[in-house]
Amino acid sequence: MKTTNIYTGSLSTIVMKLLNEHDSMYGYQIVKRVIEITHGELQITEGALYPCLHKLEAAGFVEVSYAMIGRRTRKYYKLTEKGTRETVKKLAELERYIQNMRALIHPKFRQAE
Amino acid sequence: MKTTNIYTGSLSTIVMKLLNEHDSMYGYQIVKRVIEITHGELQITEGALYPCLHKLEAAGFVEVSYAMIGRRTRKYYKLTEKGTRETVKKLAELERYIQNMRALIHPKFRQAE
DNA sequence: AGTAATGCATAAAATATTTATGTATATTTG
DNA sequence: CAAATATACATAAATATTTTATGCATTACT
Question: In chain B, what are the domains?
């Protein structure tokens, strides 16, 4: 039984929060930044990241611009206003997740009934 | 774009921790207990729970016993020793997840480089 | 008697991620 | 300078997980 990945379902939250902080980022930069912040504990795969970014774009949560670096095209993603509102929701959801998991895991921390 | 479920990937951790606390539980009880603890915010579906329990059993993490309640059979799950060791790992993984997500979400909380 | 709750379970569809692969440019290092 | 590594995008197949839908049967409530 391959242990399930607990990070499943968190990718878009992570990406959107990073975009919210950095104003504008490109894919490779996101991958590196996550490794940096989590000290290598979380390594986003490109196969997950790019489809995620494309979905965010399709949903109107990010907008895209291009930059030429030498002869190479770099694709920048930036949160739209709609995307920023969605990010707020995602972060609130994450906070609730953490609170709920705390309640489940540390019964002492359970809120009053 | 249907928002992704952040609880994805956490089900077996939740189940194993509850089993660890309660010594022995049956499926329906797990569903109800999670609703109770999270004040209805997390509702485990049976379609997810039962396959999860069966996988835990196949992996040797839980063992099963039956009880007759009236004319109805109730199936109890109990952590094995191996399952308890796995639960410890899962909980450590969850703590790391929360720390990493905190580092990603609240840059102020980031650990020293 | 009919509805809701208890209790198990599976299957189809939807969703998400990992792994593998592909293409191309740029930089570092022996 | 050639080879290895890093940068940078992307997609497809396989895998994993969950939601939604369905089914069966018993028990409690109204």
Answer: 5-108 (1.10.10.10)
